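dumping this here so i dont lose it
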């Protein structure tokens, strides 16, 4: 257990931590690297979508932060669904707890509105910077293996899993 700018950070695995923030809110998060901060905000279904990015060599010059929104993993389970504004406040509090005042934000699906709200509420948070300055890169073998495992898992679910794969493919194709 460590004190991080007024919040408790509790080690729970090789790299995942839990931040106990104001009002007893709990968010599970992971950090890797040093440099400009890049925050990953997952969508509404797959909380670990950005997990493979934490080890990407192409991102080695950044401080990467991914977290699990309320209701996912070891983050607090709310009694009512949180609003976009509440999710944005959670992210802002986590960044402040980590001593980060400015960050690039990468969001997926339901994480997008949270990123936009965060940009409205918090100066120095830029959800568009990375989207506008993408460099092409080839995913590592680790990322490819992780994605292959996810596809295999979905395929094992039968028609429901295949429908999810089809939906994702259609979404990616626009």
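and the seq i came up w/
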């Amino acid at each position: 257990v460590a004190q991080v700018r007024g919040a408790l950070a509790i080690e729970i695995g090789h790299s995942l931590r839990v931040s106990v923030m104001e009002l007893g809110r709990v968010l599970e998060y992971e950090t890797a690297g040093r440099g400009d901060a890049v925050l990953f905000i997952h969508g509404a279904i797959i909380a670990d979508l950005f997990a493979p990015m934490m080890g990407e060599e192409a991102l080695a010059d950044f401080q990467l932060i991914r977290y699990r929104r309320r209701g996912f993993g070891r983050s607090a389970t709310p009694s009512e669904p949180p609003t976009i504004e509440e999710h944005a406040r959670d992210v802002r509090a986590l960044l402040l707890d980590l001593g980060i005042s400015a960050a690039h934000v990468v969001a997926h699906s339901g994480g997008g509105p949270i990123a936009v709200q965060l940009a409205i509420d918090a100066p120095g948070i830029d959800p568009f910077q990375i989207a506008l300055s993408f460099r092409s890169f080839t995913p590592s073998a680790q990322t490819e293996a992780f994605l292959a495992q996810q596809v295999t898992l979905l395929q094992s679910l039968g028609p429901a899993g295949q429908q999810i794969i089809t939906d994702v493919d259609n979404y990616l194709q626009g």
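Helices lie at 84-97, 111-121, 129-132, 141-155, 159-172.
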